[in-house]
Design brief:
Largest sheet: 8 strands, mixed
Number of helices: 22
Structural class: alpha/beta
Distance between the termini: 56 Å
Strand content: 5-15%
CATH topology of the largest domain: Rossmann fold
CATH class of the largest domain: Alpha Beta
CATH superfamily of the largest domain: NAD(P)-binding Rossmann-like Domain
Length: about 500
């Protein structure tokens, strides 16, 4: 079977939208599954819906990458968006044609191509996702390196060449999963300008003419299809071989922090896409952490003790689903500093996302590092609810007891792999967390519920404060922990509905 390219695609009879030639408007640092299922998808849809007429050039951020495969397929690849939307199962296929080529700057030809693109009249955007470790200032990087190892140093070279050529500034859209990603990237560029002794006029151009945007990305991208039989079936249906098949969930949102004019410059608003330009992404990150991530941490530990193994099955159970929804709609959403209807819609999408028929998301994988997760994702909602209402939120209070129950369920051993416990259905499970947290629970494995709860709640290393200071919280947690141990976690969840 022939490998996908424009000629092979035409012969396959594909009827979807394709744009073969267009100006290269985007320099994208990163060519992996996420960016191809997210950023390049949004630009591709914009080409179709509003005639944006642009292409993305993918720059390989490290020495090993996908440049050869991407160029062999002339930038084309098949994207499947799978999941549920408005309660309906979705399995949508789209051949993405917004990518023109890939560049490997670790080869001389590729480095020269990157620097040529830097001074192009067509270039408008720089996009990046170089992992959380990508936005770092490494003083070992020098201006003469071809290329320097760090992404911010490469970007500094690109911007400097563009400034020297007298070209206008660009919009920089950072997708790395760190707080204030755009601001941190601009800070690193400033450090290289200082280290390399570059002109003050260049620094002024970067600060005044280039727009560094912090962004918040949200789409689960499993990436490759690992089942060989399914790959064979899809390729037989498509009529071509594709080395770059990509898979993402249907849901996606890209919150972009920037000035008002950017909403009209970017094609996404006109295309009706879920990529809003906002003055501050911080509230949207809070929405994601509190609702999406908080829902996971809030219900999965008790659900695992109740006998469930994957998220989708939890969404089929009236009690667990009811517990999650009550927690979100009655305890989390009302205290978020955003439009309540918007938050409710986001929460409704969470149920669809968790009920994805194509993803077996294991509860134990979500349980990793639940101590820090409960503190970051659930504790702020809990404390703000208490402050706003003068009462304990029933579901979040129960969630905390479920966390303690999960970490103390018939403890068997502490090994180099983690804390070995046993759940009521009889099987052992191993908890992964910081060593000090696991050592704490092992040391308290013989405590009565009252002593264990008090020790947990007064451990300020865990929570940054003494949680027994919250009126009624300690007594409620003891009662809930006893209920979980005596009647089971599902009965405990049911008790707050």
């Amino acid at each position: 079977m022939q490998t996908l390219n424009y000629e092979v695609l035409a012969k396959s009879g594909y009827k979807g939208y394709i744009l073969k030639d267009a100006p290269e408007k985007v320099m994208q640092f990163g060519e992996g599954n996420f960016l191809r299922a997210f950023v390049d998808y949004w630009f591709d849809v914009s080409n179709e819906r509003v005639g944006w007429n642009g292409k993305c050039v993918l720059v390989q951020p490290i020495a090993q990458g996908l440049t050869g495969l991407i160029n062999a397929q002339e930038g084309l690849y098949t994207l499947y968006l799978r999941g549920r939307q408005n309660g309906e199962k979705v399995d949508a296929k789209r051949v993405i044609s917004s990518v023109s080529r890939a560049i490997n700057p670790y080869e001389k030809e590729g480095y020269d191509a990157m620097m040529a693109l830097a001074v192009s009249d067509d270039l408008e955007y720089v996009v990046s996702n170089t992992t959380e470790a990508g936005i770092v200032y490494d003083p070992a990087c020098q201006q003469a390196d071809c290329p320097p190892s760090s992404f911010p140093a490469k970007l500094t070279q690109v911007l400097y060449a563009r400034w020297k050529a007298g070209k206008p500034g660009v919009v920089v859209l950072s997708c790395e999963l760190i707080d204030n990603n755009g601001k941190e990237l601009q800070k690193c560029v400033g450090q290289y300008i200082a280290q390399w002794g570059l002109e003050d006029a260049f620094r002024q151009w970067v600060d005044a003419e280039c727009t560094f945007c912090s962004t918040l990305v949200d789409r689960i991208v499993p990436g490759r299809i690992r089942d060989a039989a399914e790959v064979a079936r899809l390729e037989a249906e498509n009529g071509y071989h594709d080395e770059l098949i990509d898979v993402g969930e249907v849901f996606g949102v890209w919150n972009i922090e920037g000035p008002d004019w950017l909403a009209d410059k970017l094609p996404f608003k006109a295309a009706g896409l879920n990529c809003p330009v906002v003055p501050d992404v911080t509230p949207y990150k809070k929405r994601k952490v509190r609702i999406l991530n908080g829902a996971h941490t809030g219900f999965v530990l008790g659900a695992y003790l109740a006998g469930f193994d994957i998220v989708r099955d939890c969404m089929q159970d009236e009690t667990v689903l009811g517990f999650m929804n009550k927690m979100l709609y009655e305890e989390v959403v009302p205290i978020l500093p955003l439009d309540k209807e918007d938050c409710k819609q986001f929460a409704a999408a969470v149920q669809d996302r968790f009920n994805n028929p194509f993803v077996n998301h294991e509860l134990m994988s979500i349980s990793l590092n639940s101590t820090s997760k409960w503190r970051a994702r659930n504790m702020p909602s809990f404390l703000e609810y208490v402050e706003a209402n003068g009462a304990l939120p029933p579901c979040l209070t129960m969630s905390f007891a479920a966390y303690i129950a999960f970490y103390s369920s018939d403890i068997q051993a502490l090994t180099d792999k983690g804390l070995v416990c046993k759940r009521p259905k009889g099987n052992e499970y191993t908890i992964s967390d910081d060593a000090w947290a696991l050592e704490f629970y092992y040391a308290h494995k013989d405590d009565a519920p009252e002593a264990l709860v008090h020790a947990v709640m007064t451990n300020e290393q865990m929570w940054g404060q003494d949680l027994t200071a919250v009126p009624g919280f300690e007594a409620a947690t003891v009662q809930n922990l006893k209920l979980i141990r005596e009647k089971g976690a599902k009965a405990a969840y049911a008790s707050v509905l």
